[in-house]
Specification:
single chain, 479 residues, mainly alpha
């Protein structure tokens, strides 16, 4: 990760280690380890465990000049900045580690995120955006302080979430930035109009189905067949509706959210729907504030890239073919916010115990007969939906800031590895079975997060770049 971003030339010979010497040392170490393993007649897997680090560290030491020059140049010219980043970054990662044990810690992290823009230049130029960001962070910070979902059903909150989603969608559609109805191409206008009307109807229908199903079950009449059929249709549509939307950034994100929120509402029994809506607010202001901050910073984005947010597209050839910039401090913040919001989406309304013992009422709109596989799959999709929303926004920020995808993902990988190392030392092999199992679960979750995030990023690319329908012409958009 350091080498592609480094502009440093080869420095003093004192920093170098001869490649032949490095190769000889690691070859000797590999032979010694292999002989010791052979003498002890250990299985083949032990050779992989012991020799793989030799290969990896050999690659690191072959490029030791890059590491040495980067470290010495950094501490020589930016010692104070690096020290602040290490302290703040280390504290932020510890907050995420502690949130696995006490989800209320997430509220502290969200409050800290709320006050962050007050110390930037954006506070002087975009007070409305900063205040909106602060408010959305504080609203979302209230959810980790609430009881975990599944203990008590409150369908009035579900109705409130559906109503607020409809009102928010109508407001966003009327905004010219959404570009859904403000296009010159008639075919695209017609498709966008039909898609938006369908999504609004689906949101209203899903809210009605939840209320109708809960009333029917309370009267001991069971799940109405029509409600069940509509619920499965809505679930199926959530996978396909986004690809009929325009690939322009803001309308695509709006249509993706409107496609994923209805099945989420169908599986809510309390305040989860409000949590998902508050998360969408925060994600929008995150995208907006990062783009505006980048426009004020000459070191982050060139004037050509710093265009209006409503002019950016997920499939723009100008975005993907242009030369990417080098990583900066701003990218550390983006990577940290991404991981923090992923964890917030995971623990915002529940914990490991609530996931292991979920309330079957969450899937009553789909099925009432006990079926572990179907119920488990539905609950898994419910938990994945907030992750997808966060990842799609992260993908939009990556395009807006013109950051290399590989380098930005390596930052996320580095932070995840730090958390995984922390949880590795917290694994217990003594005490109660609950303590042992919980410590192992935390470690496994963080390590699987690396693979899970790779899948999420690819899924987000599909939801934001695949398109069926008339192509949008840049000329019509600019007009």
């Amino acid at each position: 990760m350091v080498k592609p971003q480094s502009k440093l030339d080869r420095v003093e010979e004192a920093f170098y280690t001869s490649e032949s010497v490095v190769r000889l040392l690691f070859l000797t170490a590999g032979i010694v380890i292999a002989v010791l393993l052979y003498v002890q007649s250990l299985p083949f897997t032990h050779y992989i465990y012991c020799l793989l680090p030799i290969v990896l560290w050999h690659q690191v030491f072959q490029n030791n000049y890059t590491l040495n020059s980067a470290i010495w140049s950094g501490f020589r010219n930016h010692a104070k900045t690096i020290l602040i980043i290490l302290i703040v970054g280390g504290g932020g990662l510890e907050i995420m580690v502690l949130s696995f044990f006490h989800r209320e810690i997430l509220s502290f992290g969200l409050v800290s995120m709320a006050v962050w823009p007050l110390f930037t230049s954006l506070w002087k130029t975009e007070k409305v955006v900063v205040c909106s960001w602060c408010l959305s962070c504080l609203v979302l910070a209230a959810f980790p302080l609430m009881p975990v979902v599944g203990r008590e059903a409150n369908y009035n909150l579900v109705l409130l979430a559906g109503t607020l989603t409809l009102l928010t969608a109508v407001y966003c559609i009327k905004r010219p930035e959404s570009s859904i109805f403000h296009v010159q191409n008639r075919a695209e206008w017609l498709q966008g109009t039909i898609l938006t009307v369908i999504q609004l109807l689906v949101v209203g229908l899903s809210t009605y189905i939840v209320q109708s199903t809960s009333d029917s079950i309370a009267r001991k009449e069971g799940l109405p067949l029509l409600n069940q059929i509509c619920s499965w249709i809505i679930l199926g549509l959530s996978f396909f509706l986004p690809i009929f939307s325009s690939t322009q950034m803001l309308p695509r994100l709006l249509n993706t959210a409107l496609a994923l929120i209805p099945p989420y509402i169908l599986m809510t029994t309390a305040h989860e729907g409000l949590f998902c809506l508050a998360l969408c607010y925060l994600l929008f202001f995150w995208l907006l504030i990062e783009h505006k901050l980048a426009g004020l910073s000459k070191d982050v984005i060139s004037g050509e890239v710093s265009s209006q947010l409503d002019q950016l597209s997920f499939t723009s050839t100008g975005v993907h073919n242009s030369s990417h910039r080098h990583l900066g401090v701003v990218d550390l913040r983006c990577a940290y916010f991404f991981i923090f919001l992923i964890i917030t989406a995971f623990f915002g309304t529940g914990n490991l115990a609530s996931l292991n013992s979920f309330d079957p009422a969450s899937v009553y709109c789909f099925i009432t007969v006990f079926n572990p596989f179907v119920m488990g799959s539905l609950m898994m999709w419910k938990n994945v939906i907030p992750f997808i929303l966060v990842t799609c926004t992260f993908n939009a920020i990556h395009i807006s800031l013109r950051v290399p995808t590989t380098s930005l993902f390596l930052l996320v990988l580095l932070m995840s590895d730090f958390m995984g190392l922390h949880f590795f030392f917290l694994v217990k092999d003594s005490g109660s079975w609950l303590e042992i199992g919980t410590s192992i679960s935390h470690y496994v979750i963080v390590m699987l997060m690396i693979i899970f995030l790779m899948i999420l990023l690819e899924l987000a690319k599909i939801l934001t770049t695949w398109h069926i329908g008339p192509k949008r012409s840049d000329k019509s958009h600019k007009q």
